[in-house]
Amino acid sequence: MRFIPAESPVFNNIKPGWWFFLRNDELLIKTTGEKTEIPFMDDVNIPGLELLCMHYLGKLDGSPCFTAELTVDAQAPEGMVFQGVRGIFGLLGEEIFQLACRAVHILQWDRNSQFCGRCPNPTRADTLERAKVCSMCGFRSYPRISPATITAVKRDKRILLARARRFPAELYSVVAGFVEPGETLEECVKREIMEETGIDVKNVRYFGSQPWPFPDSLMIAFTADYAGGEIRIDKNEIMDAGWFSADALPRIPDKLSIAWRLIDHFIENNL
Ligand SMILES: [Zn+2]
């Protein structure tokens, strides 16, 4: 593995190293001819770039790796461009995309936890672990991770796909939803599919997981089998749902998401 996460959020000797500079959810990347990469720098002081906050992420290929938030008006230095994080998957591969996701998640948390959630005082960064500590009451807060389940349901040789209201035109995907307090992952799978499509499922099996920092989810993927019921959609969330065979699928999500991996797995086993 190229990346080893940091045990401590603080690292004092910052050069040379890899830098994940973010301007909102755009990452600064370096382009040299045909080659595209994350900037590897001896000096973090680039004229025109102001760092709002900085975090040590760990080591990438043996060198320290950092992320820093830039001001919204930051201009890319010569030979570099800002690229939306989702576009990194196609340009720089899955591992760098995952690291960019980690950077986005940590910086968003930093931005959203400047003040204590219990009293109205400012927080400070802890030096031993990635946490914010209230300067007045001592309340600690950690990066928030919101688990959500996403499930491929199979009936004979067909898969259940739904078109959510928030999706781009014509896109269908597997059913997903956030875990509620007090709920197991399996209960969440069954509840979300029943609520959104009216379908009962059985044989819920773990498939894989993916951090998804838009804004702070951890997607936990499952497969399941049809157990009963007819499609009855929740019109507040879903526009359409149906059973699709592998050779007649609608438009599905991009390769970078675990939704695609679930659907691809279904295709491989049911064509
Ligand atoms: Zn406080």
Compose a concise summary of this entry.
This protein has 271 residues and is α+β, with helices and mostly antiparallel strands. The protein has helices at 85-92, 94-112, 185-197, 258-270; strands at 3-5, 17-23, 26-32, 35-37, 40-41, 51-60, 63-70, 80-84, 123-125, 132-134, 140-141, 146-155, 158-164, 175-178, 200-212, 217-228, 238-245. The protein is built from four helices and 17 strands.
Describe the fold and architecture.
- With about 270 residues, the protein is α+β, with helices and mostly antiparallel strands.
- It has three domains: about 5-110, Nucleoside Triphosphate Pyrophosphohydrolase, CATH 3.90.79; about 115-145, no CATH class; about 145-270, Nucleoside Triphosphate Pyrophosphohydrolase, CATH 3.90.79.10.
- The protein is about 20% helix and about 40% strand.
- The strands form three sheets. Strands 1, 2, 3, 4, 5, 6, 7 and 8 form an eight-stranded mixed β-sheet that branches. Strands 12, 13, 14, 15, 16 and 17 form a six-stranded mixed β-sheet that branches.
- A hairpin with a 4-residue loop joins strand 15 and strand 16 (about 215-230).
- Helix 1 (about 85-90) runs antiparallel to helix 2 (about 95-110).
- The longest helix is centred in the middle third of the chain and has 19 residues, at about 95-110.
- It is globular, with a radius of gyration of 21 Å.
- The model has no long low-confidence stretch (mean pLDDT about 95).
- The structure holds zinc ion.
- Zinc ion (ZN) binds next to loops.
